[in-house]
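To: structure desk
From: M.T.
Subject: fold request, one chain
Message: Could you run this one when you get a chance? Sequence is below, nothing fancy, just the single chain.
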Amino acid sequence: MNTDDIFAVTIRDAQVKLGQKSRSGIYEAVGKGLLVMVKDRDRSLITIESIRRYQRSWPRAKIKAPAAR
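Reply: Done. Structure tokens follow.
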């Protein structure tokens, strides 16, 4: 899904973009202010901007280099 001109996605799409994060994990992040949820009538959507900001806040993985042979 190209999100260049999409401003918000469904909770399911947000779960996929966040590495299969659980639905309750999405709501927890919203409750902590890490993700922004907006309403479109009866649908709850997560803003792409907040998904990007949330992902940028994640720590980098620290991978140990393999031992030389």
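Reply (cont.): The first helix runs from residue 11 to 17. Let me know if you need anything else for the meeting.
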